[in-house]
Design a protein that fits this description.
The chain contains 4 helices and no strands. The chain has helices spanning 3-10, 12-22, 38-49, 53-62. The chain is mainly alpha-helical and 63 residues long. Helix 1 crosses helix 4 (53-62). It is globular, with a radius of gyration of 10 Å. It starts with a helix and ends with a helix. The longest helix is centred in the last third of the chain and has 12 residues, at 38-49. The relative contact order is 0.21.
Length: 63
């Protein structure tokens, strides 16, 4: 399990708020989290923001 996955599981409300502040185009639907669906979540964020998977993970890890 990666640090990103741990961060998503443990502090999702904080992570979600930070993502919405940084990437205003993200909606609550984009940020719907279900346990075990971390890759799909990161994929939705990538698609909406145009950032790479690593950029998204690095941002989440920095929160």
């Amino acid at each position: 399990m990666s640090a990103t996955t741990d961060k998503i599981k443990g502090n999702w409300n904080t992570v979600k708020g930070s993502l919405k502040q940084k990437y205003g185009e993200l909606t609550d639907d984009d940020l719907t989290y279900a346990e075990g669906q971390e890759d799909e979540l990161i994929g939705r964020i990538q698609k909406k923001t145009g950032k790479s998977k690593q950029e998204v993970k690095d941002f989440i890890d920095s929160i």
